[in-house]
């Protein structure tokens, strides 16, 4: 009915216009020679320029994804509501412009990658196999993000929404196409992540092993441009906005904040999208699912070895006050014990602090024997997984939450109606029950003790057989 109404109103509006007015608004003959298809297709080295555009578009998409995913998780609380005003409470509604922008930027990445494969690349006399592989890789990323953050989404303009499982399969096909041309560890890891969330343990393990065989410490990043844009929006929230204190981490994650900080006036902090640590975590989780604690411990030791080689940035974060209106303050001293553990909170007022910029964890070699093939070991693994992937948009997916198709798509796409797959948010019942407590802490200034109201890792493991989470269980 809604689409009929829009059609009728549109017809009445057109009927009321004069021919003279039609001439005024007819822009079809206007063409910017610098923006036409002919200015790109068939031009030497256009495929290289298009590839740079794909990385730029991925950066734009990540600017949308990370804010929503990190706020929707238990990693951060939004104390100033400068960014999304809904996701911190997992209020996922189709009228939220952030839903629209996130969906569109992911879909734009897909269309740009496919146009590169079908048109730009073949039209460039200097097109190379490596560039073709990268086009397939970015197409795979677009399908991967569609699957990770939406339960259903069209895979083509105005198309019928397909399930996240189908998007994962499309991602695998694209990564396979890239691998058929050039073997890179991140191509294998893209497949491993897709198979992981599909619950295909054997294939996830195989792909993770193939990734590590090509590089035990690889790290694929997306770069950001501080001077010309796009800049890293999440870095702005974590660091550059300083005393606004937009986003505050759980005290258990304080030592990892801010993951992104200012680099130079020209270069902003990159986002790590596919790194070797993920392969080790996939393998360790598979080991625990098989009851093989020894193998899991070996893989977690490998994880620690990689993390030990990653950059740790020394930064001045003294302007970060860890203060807000309610509660009066948050833990901000390195002598505070959080959930019975020390060393998790940094003293930012007592000089520069050291913060991991790629991966960090509170797990130590002494903790590795505690990774046993039971719920306690699995909880420790998921705590480590949360720490390693902070500010990378993974925790939200691990919680089993999905965003929804935005209102404009529902209204304008004839293949979608309200109530269809993808138009309702997915929030597991055990997550719904603790939404008010996701970011909640208990802390009395001067007490030296802080606690989180819940331990979400314990809750995830307690519900490990639910279809939305812990895919190997």
Describe the overall structure:
The chain is mainly α. It has a single domain (47-462), classed as Serine Threonine Protein Phosphatase 5, Tetratricopeptide repeat, CATH 1.25.40. The chain has helices spanning 2-16, 19-25, 46-72, 97-123, 129-149, 164-179, 185-198, 201-214, 233-240, 276-289, 293-307, 375-388, 394-398, 407-412, 429-432, 456-462, and strands at 76-78, 152-154, 161-163, 219-225, 247-249, 267-275, 312-315, 337-338, 353-356, 441-443, 449-452. A three-stranded mixed beta sheet has the order 8-11-10, with no helix packed on it. Strands 1-5 form a two-stranded antiparallel ribbon. It has a two-stranded antiparallel sheet with strand order 2-3. Strand 2 and strand 3 (161-163) form a beta hairpin. Helix 6 (164-179) packs antiparallel against helix 7 (185-198), helix 7 (185-198) runs antiparallel to helix 8 (201-214) and helix 10 (276-289) runs antiparallel to helix 11 (293-307). The longest helix has 27 residues, at 46-72. The radius of gyration is 24 Å and the shape is globular.
Which helices and strands, and how do they pair?
Elements: H1 2-16, H2 19-25, H3 46-72, E1 76-78, H4 97-123, H5 129-149, E2 152-154, E3 161-163, H6 164-179, H7 185-198, H8 201-214, E4 219-225, H9 233-240, E5 247-249, E6 267-275, H10 276-289, H11 293-307, E7 312-315, E8 337-338, E9 353-356, H12 375-388, H13 394-398, H14 407-412, H15 429-432, E10 441-443, E11 449-452, H16 456-462
Parallel strand pairs: 8-11
Antiparallel strand pairs: 1-5, 2-3, 4-6, 7-9, 10-11
Helix pairs in contact: 3-4, 3-5, 4-5, 5-6, 5-7, 6-7, 7-8, 7-10, 8-10, 10-11, 10-12, 12-16
